[in-house]
Amino acid sequence: MLRKVMLCFAIACLVFGSAVAYAGEGIPEEDLVAGFVYIGPIGDGGWTYMHDLGRLEMEKAYPKMKTFFAESVPEGPDSARVMETFVRNGAQLVFATSFGYMDFVQEVAKKYPKVKFMHCSGYKRAENVGTYFGRMYQARYLSGIVAGKATKSNVIGYVAANPIPEVIRGINAFTLGVRKVNPQAKVKVVWLFSWFDPGKEKEATLALIDSGADVIAMHADSGAAPQAAEEAGVYVIGYNNDMSKYAPTKHLTAPVWDWGKVYTYVAGQVIKGTWKSEDIWWGLKEGLVDLAPFGKEVPESVKEMVKAEKDAIINGKHVFVGPIKNQKGEVVVKDGVAMTDEELLGMNWFVEGVEGDVPN
Fold it and tell me: Which residues form the ABC transporter substrate-binding protein PnrA-like domain (predicted)?
């Protein structure tokens, strides 16, 4: 499982968010070793693939440091064993790249207080544990505008991984974008209860198409949904990466990651001795999230609309500003009120326009 490649979150944030500690002296670049724990294979074309590109971007910025990684590590005790193996092999910096690693990061970090750990999408921090994620909901909102303009049936399907606030927040932001330009459209959600399962992703896509969806969006880690949409002749909004290679004629755009922005920043802090336990939550402004290039069938007028909204967000516009209604039509965010980060991190309800349930 372990491949050496040498030279090559929730309301609980309020509880754990106060941990800010400086880690002491820096580590020379040539002595720095970093390990990456991946939930999927690096060839998944999505989530893990983009994290690995980020690792390589960090290596390019700091060519004297060394890295290694383990792919397809389950969100369970195996992840703790992998992280301990990293440390025994000299890692002073460990990146754990999936939400379910959270408690195991805490467990291992307690054993190795001199090692710095960074956990992606979690909310628990400690003196030697920081967290990082991106405001992907901003790019989701923009992609919703594209989808809302593209649908003719006013039914948009959403292939969703696991029912945690990160995914729910993305669905809601996407739906707000859809209904900004098409108030009659609905977003149907099918849950996978998995991050990476190409078979399920394809089945869910086809089920949504059978239910009337003429645009598919996704929060899943492979290119299976775009492939299925392409084969069915249905438009698709990808995720993680520019997935146009999976749907060359039907790919409209995709909310995408540039993890190298974070990894290069963190490595630089460790080298300079300025690393501290913090929660990094960057967005469009910092370039951690963005949209993939538009497909040929996206009209210029839609591109211009998306650009205007993107510029507004970069300049401070909030995506989640009231009035916002829930699925029952009740106003849950009052007119002119922006939701706080804490509220976004604990989001467990759907906005008006979403069809589907949030499982307990």
Answer: 33-316
A 10 A CB-CB count for 172 gives: 29
Give the C-alpha separation, 144 to 207, whole Å.
20
Task: Indicate the residue type of 94.
Answer: V
The helix (H) or strand (E) run that includes residue 235 is: strand 235-237
Could you tell me the residue ranges of all domains in the chain? Answer: 2-134+258-282, 136-249+289-355
Q: Is the pLDDT of residue 31 over 90?
A: yes
Q: How far apart are alpha carbons 59 and 53 in whole angstroms?
A: 10
Residue 221 · residue 161 · CB < 8 Å = yes
DSSP labels for 174-218?
HHHHHHHH-TT-EEEEEE-SSS--HHHHHHHHHHHHHTT-SEEEE
Question: Which one of 3.40.50.2000, 3.40.50.2300, 3.40.50.300, 2.40.160.210 gives the CATH number of domain 136-249+289-355?
Answer: 3.40.50.2300
Question: Nearest CA to 66 among 100, 96, 92?
Answer: 92
Note the pLDDT tens digit of each residue in 39-94.
999 999 999 999 999 999 999 999 999 999 999 999 999 999 999 999 999 999 99
Distance CA 357, CA 86 (A): 40
Measure the CA–CA gap between 187 and 181, rounded to whole angstroms. 14
In sequence order, what DSSP letters do the residues of 63-90 get, joined into one string?
TTSEEEEE-S--SSHHHHHHHHHHHHTT
Q: Residue 223 carries which side chain, given as an amino acid letter?
A: G
Q: Rg of the chain over CA atoms, in angstroms?
A: 20
Burial of 215 (0-12, 13-18, 19+ CB in 10 A): buried
**Which CATH topology does 2-134+258-282 take?**
Rossmann fold (3.40.50)
